[in-house]
Design goal:
Blueprint (H helix, E strand, L loop, with lengths): L2 H46 L3 H16 L3 E6 L8 E5 L3 H7 L10 H7 L16 E3 L2 H6 L12 H4 L4 E9 L2 E10 L7 H79 L12 H19 L3 H4 L2 H15 L4 E7 L7 H22 L3 E9 L2 E8 L13 H12 L3 E6 L5 E8 L2
Parallel strand pairs: 6-7
Antiparallel strand pairs: 1-2, 1-5, 3-4, 4-5, 7-8, 8-10, 9-10
Length: 436
């Protein structure tokens, strides 16, 4: 080969390589352009949509356009640890009903494991670096699953005829909010490029969901504050009315009776008539009853026993009074905490929670046993009030001032409030504070 031919061959090789590099650069630019366009579309959705639900439904439609998969869904973790589909398209009603009620705590399935980041060993080879799962031949994937692991799959996707499946976590920073679910009956529908593309969009979707969540939380907080303020005003007026009634009907009547007896005695002392007199010592029990009534009203307004003897004595005193009125309810107490270990600011909070809880038990629970526990464990002070009554469905129960007030008291004092109740299985209230 002559030098000229060698130069031509080398030049041809260089041109081929240059063309390949140019084609790759063009492809990369197209990918960047597509991602930029997709980012703009997602940002515009955030600006145009007024609610998280509207946004998610629009995102599902975008995912459908990008992927052309028949089934698209977005699962989000709710406050109870469930992962329902907040938006979806292409799934049958039977599939949706079966898959919409999954729980991270109670259900073994591929979706829950990917969201929690704890896949089985057989699943790891199907994961991307971003933690997404993808299989374009789901039947073959399931056929390779060991017999011991089969009970950890619900198998609904396979029974529904899906062969291509991808589950892509949606995160805000490091927190997983849920997952994008892609499914199709055809094999090979989810290419690596498509999967990577949606993975790059997932953080933006997660950021937008987080912002909508913050807006919803702010709206709920404002609404909750308005409701609570209205309830507080009503409670204040009702309390004033109650105190005024007790002062008038009880203490006022007692004082009027004492005044009448004293006036009659003075009249007898000034009279020369000879008839049996009123004994002054008969007035003493009336005065004593009035004093006791004043103490009772005062105790309702502020339990002075907390200042004089402490919370533990206050709890015992209140439970003793409660037992005298509601003799059919047995109260067991486990007060395994020292008085000086209870912060002063928490004593009135705990006392008021105890008052409200026991009053609710007496009114509604039909319980005959109550356990009151107050103990310190691992720098936490924990109060538990549990009964064996009829219980109730907390989600559908009207949020009266009692439950709201207890929760607000605990949270405003820096604690965590938990209420557990099921119909016919009793109710348990727990309040927990971090203390030094």
């Amino acid at each position: 080969m002559t030098d000229q031919q060698k130069r031509k061959t080398l030049r041809k090789t260089e041109l081929i390589q240059l063309n390949e590099d140019l084609q790759k650069e063009i492809a990369d630019l197209r990918v960047m352009e597509n991602r930029l366009q997709a980012t703009n579309e997602l940002l515009n959705l955030f600006l145009r949509k007024s609610s998280r639900q509207e946004y998610l439904e629009a995102v599902v439609n975008l995912l459908y356009q990008w992927s052309e998969c028949r089934g698209i869904g977005i699962r989000l973790i709710d406050s109870q640890g469930n992962i329902p589909y907040e938006a979806y398209r292409g799934f049958s009603s039977a599939f949706w009903k079966s898959e919409n009620c999954l729980s991270l705590q109670n259900n073994q399935c591929l979706c829950s494991r990917i969201i929690q980041g704890n896949p089985l060993l057989e699943e790891t080879s199907f994961l991307t670096k971003a933690g997404s799962f993808c299989s374009n031949d789901l039947s073959s994937f399931m056929a390779r699953i060991s017999a011991d692991s089969r009970n950890k799959y619900r198998g609904v996707c396979v029974r529904s005829g899906f062969n291509s499946l991808a589950i892509i976590p949606v995160r805000h920073q490091q927190k997983v909010l849920g997952a994008i679910h892609l499914a199709d009956e055809r094999q090979g529908c989810i290419s690596p490029a498509l999967l990577e593309f949606i993975e790059t969009m997932a953080p933006l979707i997660g950021e937008t969901i987080h912002r909508f969540n913050l807006e919803d939380e702010l709206k709920n907080s404002e609404q909750h504050l308005r409701v609570l303020s209205a309830q507080l005003l009503t409670a204040q007026e009702n309390e004033r009315k109650r105190i005024a009634r007790e002062l008038h009907d009880s203490i006022g009547q007692s004082l009027a009776a004492i005044k009448f007896v004293l006036e009659k005695k003075i009249s007898q002392l000034n009279s020369t008539a000879n008839f049996p007199g009123i004994k002054l010592e008969d007035i003493v029990p009336m005065i004593q009853d009035t004093i006791e009534e004043i103490r009772r009203v005062s105790m309702d307004l502020w339990p002075s026993i907390l200042d004089d003897l402490g919370l533990l004595s206050g709890i015992n005193y209140f439970c003793r009074q409660f037992g005298e009125i509601y003799s059919t309810i047995k109260i067991d107490k486990d007060l395994s905490v020292a008085e000086d270990a209870i912060p002063s600011a928490l004593k009135i909070v705990i006392y008021r929670i105890l008052q409200e809880a026991l009053n609710n038990i007496a009114k509604y629970s039909k319980a005959d046993k109550v356990l009151i526990s107050l103990h310190k464990k691992n720098n936490h002070l924990e109060l538990t009030i549990a009964d064996n009554g009829i219980g109730f469905d907390y989600q559908s129960f009207p949020k009266g001032m009692g439950l709201v007030g207890m929760k607000e008291r605990v949270e405003l004092s820096g604690g965590d409030f938990t209420l557990t109740s099921l119909p016919h299985q009793g109710t348990s209230i727990k309040a927990r504070w971090l203390i030094s």
